[in-house]
Amino acid sequence: MRQTRRQFLGATAAFSAAAIAPHRLMAQASGFAPITARTAAVQLAPEGYAKTDIWGYDGAMPGPTIRVQQGARVQREFVNALPQASSVHWHGIRIANAMDGVSGLTQDAVAPGDTFEYDFVVPDAGTYWFHAHNRSFEQVARGLHGALIVEEPVAVDVDRDEVLVVDDWLLNPETAQLDPDFEAAHDRSHAGRSGNFIVTNGDYEFSTDVKKGDRLRLRLINAANARIFVLSLAGLDGWAMAYDGMPLAQPEKIEGDFPLAPGQRVDLFVDVTAEVGESAYVLRTLDGQNMPQATFPVTAASTGSMRGAPDALPANTIAEIGDLADARSLILNMEGGAMGQLEAAILDGERRTFRQLADANQFWAFNGVIGMTDTPLATLARGETVRLTIKNDTAFPHAIHLHGMHFREVAQDGQLGPMRDTLLSIGGQSNEIAFVADNPGKWLLHCHMLTHAASGMMTWVDVA
Ligand code: C2O
Ligand code: CU
User: What's the pTM?
Assistant: First the structure.
């Protein structure tokens, strides 16, 4: 249901006044530092445009970066000062299930004015993030996301550590306000809700000064609803060090373009090779053109010499995948969308034609079923090795995210790829992933193109 802009603002004002005061008291009672989801107005569009009304953690976009040591306990009191129920998901953390923050699966959505205590341990070092997990297609688009950085126990040899949250916003070019049609059928049935205003850390011309010869650790996080960023480096010698938080056994030299799908992260080490007075860049390729995604003006030269290829980051301790020959085999058939072949699928227990599904604003099926059901895709024994074939029978790419456990891609020849939590699946292709089901609980498996998740691409596995 769409509200007019006036109704929306009216509701917001009423809630903020009523909701915030009692929470301050409760936050003190629990002793947990509060993290408050609330409305705010931020200067997103260039100077001269109006401020944009957003929803942000502590009113910021991205929200405040949470930085902790590996093995630390994170205790935050989530305060919902929004006009809508919400919850916080800690993306990529191998977390206790009750803290995973999925409204309707691992907890009830936190009503406006209510609070929820998140209390969990972060077992793995790396680059993670947190975001709303109720009506994510709307709430993440409104700005409810932030970085969660887990530091290695030993200092890493870099001069700078920069978190770069890449995102896009769908703004009305006249008013600079968010397009309020979060459930647009065209976005849902095609590539998802893509923005027209691309930012890094909320800044459309993100820039930070560097020295020639410096080694930077860039932690890239794709918080966009649907955009696959295609990135490259200029004036920087770079290595991929970790994907989705998990260190690579061997750093990979960056040559040319690399994709970053919604939900995915990459940790890069980059050495500044551009000359003093020039700029180095992270570039994005869009419609055949390279544009700066982040600009690094080189203002001085470092006194040290270049370091040479880096050593791998210390590995996280995760159960290794057992013999694939003995693994439990599962399949995820993805169908639907515009230009797809889906003729019919089950919605709410009933078989519906594609036309009927479209009328219900639902477009995508996993194994012939639309959206979450009471029965999981599979019930897994704890510790069991699972191989899951992900078959993309659609005309679009999808970013398939598994909660609670990391997986490795299984190549045609049986070789295991790097550990990840979000797989970029290309239309018409098939991928296989394998993981050890060692984290008990109910874990979501869904497309991180959030409009796709909301229009069918969502299921779950139950680890007994
Ligand atoms: Cu990053 Cu289920 O989400
Ligand atoms: Cu998708």
Answer: 0.93
